[in-house]
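Q: Structure for this?
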Amino acid sequence: MTDINKANEQAVSRMMEARPILKGVAPARDVIPGMKPNLLLHAGPPIEWARMSGPLRGAVIGALIFEGLAKTEQEAVALVEKGEIEFAPCHHHDTVGPMAGVTSSSMMVYILENETHGNKAYSNLNEGYGKVLRYGAFSEEVIAKLRWMNESMGPLLAKAIEASGGIDIRTLLSESLHMGDEGHNRNKAGSIIYTAKLAPWIAKVAADNDVESEVLKALGENALSVLNPVMAACKAMSASAHGVEGSTMVTTMARNGTDFGMRVSGLGDQWFTAAAEVPDGLYFPSFTSKDANPDIGDSTITETAGIGAFAMAAAPAIVTFVSGTPQDALNATLEMYEITIAEHSHFTIPQLEFRGTPTGIDIRKVVELGITPRVNTGIAHREAGVGQVGAGLVRPPMKIFEDALIAYAQHYNL
Amino acid sequence: MSATKSEVRPGVYYDSVVLMQLQRKLAALPGVEDAGVVMATPANLELLADSDLLEASGKAARPEDLLIVVRASSEAEATSALAQVDELLKQRSSGGGNQAFRPRSLAAGVKNLPTAEWVLISVPGRYAAKVAHEALDNGKHVFLYSDNVELEEEIALKQRGAELGLLVMGPDCGTAIINGVGLGFANRVRRGPIGLVGASGTGLQAVTVSIHNYGGGVSQAIGTGGRDLKAEVGAASMLQGLRYLAVDESTQVIVLISKPPDEATAARLLSEAQTAGKPVVVCFIGFATPAEQIGNVHFAQGLDSAARIAVGLSTGAMTPPTIERRAGYLRGLFSGGTLAYEALNGLQNFLHPMYSNVAIRSSQKMGDPLHSQAHTIIDLGEDVFTVGRLHPMMDNDLRLRRLKQEVEDTETGLVLLDVVLGEGSHADPAGELATAIAAHAKTRPDIEFVALVVGTDEDPQNTDEQIQKLEAAGARIFRETTMAVDYIAARLAAAPSPAGKALPPFSEPLAAINVGVESFFDSLKVQGADAVQVDWRPPAGGNEALASILEKMKSK
C-alpha cells in the first residue's frame, strides 16, 4: 500500500508543474483522438439521449444541423433515436466544453499542450453571449455564428497562434487572478489579456481587414473568450495528475445537466455520479430558480485545477453571486483550503497576502469535514435554446465523494 | 389532549449551547408545552423520557443523531413548531455576511491563527481524544473540557503531552486562568503572585475567588481534570503545572487543590512540592493534614483557608531552605509509641511505600514486624517485641540488634532513633547507641543517622552530654518530632524523575483555538484574547462506516 499523502503530493505537484501552452486551432476530427463524424462529445459524465436534459438535447440537435447530418430538429431527433449517433463525454477524449460542451467532428478546437508532461487537451471556441449552442440553442442565427467561427475566426486564430509560437495560459491565469478574475465565472481580465496577446499576430497574418476586425471585435467584446483555452489548460493540468497510484485527489469534476460526475486520480477511469443540483444564484430579470436546469458543463475543471470558486477571494467583483460581501469571497476561498492538498505555486491571491490558491481536492477531507467543493457557474434554462438565466454557486452532491471513498477502500483493500 | 412529535436528523451535530437555545425558542412557540433538543445519547433519551418527551421515533434515534421533540396542546401546533426549526437555527448566526471565516477543521484553525498556543476542546467525549491528539500534533497545549473520555485515552494524552512539553488540562477540565485570561468557566480575578493547580474545577474557582476577595491575585490557575490524581494517571498534569509554577517568575506562592488523591500519587506530588523553592499550599479536601506545615509545604483544611494562607505567604518574602536529597529507605526504630505514630503521620505524606507496626493506613500494615521493608517505622515498645524482656526505654539491647539488622540491609539510607530521657529510663542510652552508630558508620558511611532526643536539662542523664555523644558519633539531632519529620521528608522523599520536557513560558497575549462550545470562544474574545472558533462536526457527519475508512486511511 502506498502512502496516500505522498501519492497526493505527487499528484498535486504534477498538476501545478504542468505548463499548458495554447498551440493552435484545428478541426476536431484532425486532432482529438478517436473523433469521428457520427460522434458527438458532451459535457459531464456519460449519458444516453433518454436522460439528457433540455439544454444538452438542444446542443445535440444544433450540432447535428451544423454538421449537415440533419436539416431540422425532427430529423436530428430521429437520427439520434435510430441510434445513428454515438455520444461520449468530452473527458474521454482529452476535451472539455463549457455548459452542454457539445463538440462535433468539424468544429474548430483549441489545442493545448502541456510542455512539462507532453499531454494535450482540447476545447471548442467560445461563442459569446446570447443565443448559443452551449445553452442548447440551435436556431439559424446560432448555426450561422458557428459557421462564421469555424470558417473565419478559427482559421485566423490558428494562423495567429502558430505565428505567436504559443500562448502560455498558466502565466495568463497567474496574471488575470491579480486583476479580479477567478478563471471560471469571471474571465474579463483574462479575455482582455488574451486579446492583447493575440492582436499583433492576428494583424500580422490576417489577409482580410474585415475578418481581422470582426475577429478582434468578437475576442475583445466577449468576456469569456479565454474561458475555453483556460478550461483546456486546466484539463491538461489535471489530466497530468490522473492515474497516480494511491492518490485520493480529484482529477475530474463535470456535469451533463442531469448528473454530476467525478473521477479520482488513484481510481482509474471510474466515474462517481449523482444527480446534479440546481445552482443557488442570481437570476436575470424574469427568470427564477424554477427555470433553471440542473448544473451543467465541464467548466468545473477550473475548480478541479485550483481556480474558479476556489480563487473566489481574488474576484470580489462577482461576490453578489455568493450572496454578498468581499468577506464572503474570502471565506469561500478559506473554506476550500480545508479540503485541498496544496496551495498553488503559480496561482496566488493578492487579497490573501499572495497565498497560493487551494489546489487539489482530497476526497478524504471532503468526507471527513462534510465540506463539498464550491463551484461558480452559469445557470442554463431547463428548456433547450433559451440560454443563460443566471449565475451562482453550486456544490457537487456529497454522495459522489462518499462513493469514491468506499470504492477506494475496496480497490486498495482497506 | 396534547400531542408529542419528534424529528430525527441523522448525523447532524450542533454544540449543546445551540441546542439549548433552540429548545428554549421552541418552548416559547404558541401552544408548545415542552420541547427537547438533544443529541440522542442514551443519557439524553432517559432525560427526555423523564419529561414525557420520548415517543417511538425518538427511541429509535442513534447517539450521533439530533433529536428534536415538541409536546404541544395540539398536533397542528406541534407540527408547526417542528417546521420552524431551521428558521430558528438560522437566527443564531448574527454575524451576517461579514462574519470572519470559521474553519471546520483544527488544521485550518491552526493555519488561521498560527500564534495560538492553546486549543480548547469541548466536542462530544468519544471524539475528544482524537481532537486533543491533533492539537498536540500541532504543538498546542490542550484545555479539554469534554468529559466521557476513557481513562486510557487520558493517560495516553498526558504521556504524549509530557514528552512534547505540552500541557493537557482535562479531560473534564472546567476552568483555567492563563496569563489573566479565563478558559472555560473562570471568575474575573486580579492578577498577582499566586499560582494554582487544581484537579477540581469548582475548587479552583472557589480558591481564586477567595484569593481575590482577600486582596491577593492569581498568576496562573491550571486545571488538570478530576482524574489526574488517580494512581493510573499519577498526577501527570499537576506535576507539570507545579514544575511550571516553580520556575514561573510571576508566581511566588503555589496552591495545589484536589479531592483526596491516591496515596502514592500524593507522596510524589508532595515530594515534588518540597523542591519548588517556593511555599506550596496544599488543599486536598478530605485528606488528613499531618501538620500545618512541613518544610515549605503548608496544609490547608479547606478551600478558603488555602486562599488565606496563600495570600498571607505571598505578602511576606520567604525562601525555604533547600535540603539535598539522598537515596535509600528510612528505618525508624522507636522506643516511644506516640513518637513513632507522629513521625509516621507526617512522613507518610512524602515517603512511599511506608510500613509500620503502628500503621495509620491499612496499606502500611507489616506482615512481619521483625523485618523492615521500604520505608519502615517500628515501635519497638510494642508487645511483640517486649514479651519477656525490658522495655527499650530501659534496655537498648533490642534496638542495638535491630539497628545492626538495618545497617546490614543495603536498602537502608537513613536511620531514625528516638532517645527518651528522664526518670526510669536507661541511665546512658546515648552512650550505647553512639558506640554502635560510630561502629556502623565505618562499614556503612552512606547511612545517615538521625536521633530525636526528648529530655530536659534537669533530667538525670544530662541531656547535653547525651546529645554530644550522639553528635560525636555522627548523628544529626532533633529535639522534637515535627522538626525531624521536616528534615527527613525533605531528605528522603523520592525526587520524581522529571518525566518529559518542561513547559515553555506561556505567551502573552493569549491566543487560542476553540473547538466546540461557542460561548467559550465568545468569552475569549470578550477578554481580549486572540481566538478562532472551529465549527467542528463529527467526522464524516457521524457516519461510522465512512469514519472508519478515513481512520484506516490515516495510518497509510
